[in-house]
Amino acid sequence: MTGNENLVDGVENESQQDAHVAEHAAGGTASIRRHEVHEAPPPRRYRLPKVRRAFGGPPPPPPHISFQYNSAATIERIPYNLQFIVPRNRNVIAPTAVAIGPYHRALPQLSGMQEAKAAAVAEFCRAAGQPLAAVRGKMLSVAGAARGSYAADGTLVDLDNGEFAEMMLLDGCFLLQFMASVCRRRDDDPLISRGEVRRSINAIVRDVMLLENQIPWLVLSSLMQLMPPPAGSVVNDFLLLMASAFHIVGDISNANSQTGLPAAGELDKPPPPHLLGLFHRRQMDMGAVRTQQHQGSLLRVPFQLASLSSTAVELAEMGVKLAPSKTKTFGDMAMSKRGRRWPLGLFGELSLAPLVLNRLTECWLLNMAAYELCQPQGDATDSFPVSSYVTLVSLLVNRPEDVQEMRAKGLVVSVFDDAETLGFFKALAPHLSVGYRYYEVFQCLQEYRQERWLWIAVHRFLYNNIKTIATVFSIVGVLAGLFKTILSVKQPHGP
Fold this sequence. Notes:
Layout lengths: L2 H10 L4 H10 L87 H15 L3 H16 L13 H24 L10 H4 L2 H7 L9 H8 L7 H12 L8 H9 L14 H8 L2 H8 L19 H7 L1 E5 L9 E3 L11 E5 L2 E3 L1 H15 L11 H12 L3 H9 L3 E3 L3 H11 L7 H16 L1 H38 L5
Parallel strand pairs: 1-3, 4-5
Antiparallel strand pairs: 2-3
């Protein structure tokens, strides 16, 4: 089995990740070559205390630290209220194998990947047919603009433009070469064949989609300009493989056409801020198209949505069927008052994307939701597909029985137990914003309640008493048979 086949297995099962982290931490600091970044001393900033705690709110906020706000930043820190919501203190913020960008570059346990980064630069120059000086010059030309993409929290104080450009060179080449390597699936790949990379493939896959572990898209696009065409297919193929982590086995082929290739009109959109931003965009395009069609109408959504929400079991009682959406993107959620899949349109239908939940996907969900919170508001399209999805699921599950109903409908496949799956959604949802499609679903659900109240009452009675009704009919059938037998015995027989 090749290293890249291990990646495919790792996308579906993150159970080996802790072992990879332990191996990385045990590794010594590798020697750094001449053209690598000289690590600057870590900036002085407040570090959160290590708190072992149960589910609930975050610990007290850190003391006030004054930094100038950077309104142009596109790579920001995870909002504080999202940092402590994952159970058992599983880390979903900091990288565990490789630092991409400046925020976590000073972590000593990540220094073992520096030699691999230098090897990636050399391989990139060879594949692109460019001398190292030309590639380094390209990074120097965009260093000033790329530097402004990061939050003004003091991280870059000790880095001049030359050191910053060297860091972008190492991280950008490593990221592009890693994406190309996992898509090529070659045993002799110069990057994957390195021990420190091969042992940590699953952890690296996780790390490159963290909000605090990004580099500006400007850096990647500048490097891709030096690569032989088609350079963009490397990113597309990699994002397709990453999107498959969210999909239930058997649905990946259907998802390929929706989440892996550029969506219609994507080329006309502004470039994404970073790789996570592009991955997020692929998860929202299909839903945004439908949402734009209703921008001219005003949704009449009652203020107290909580009182109108229904769990998965309650929806089943009301005659609303849960079904997977067609596109498998988080933005594609809809409520139909008369589902087309059901006879005579008797049943309503709530469709949303099926989800695989494990250590990898819970990490990516939180980071995409954090990315949405950091985006400027007032966009023409709905910019909260992941947050809306998580919030909707959290309202559908109030008890472990609701999680079991979601599992039975094929909408959630979780490696966690019912209580922990429930806890993840319940802990994350209160901190998120929601978008137009979320309110659209609830307006349609409220209209279903008002227009089909008689059918709901009949269906709820049948749903809750179906076993009793079946038992009564069985008893009646048995009694009728006995009665018929008795009558046949008592009837006089002919001579």
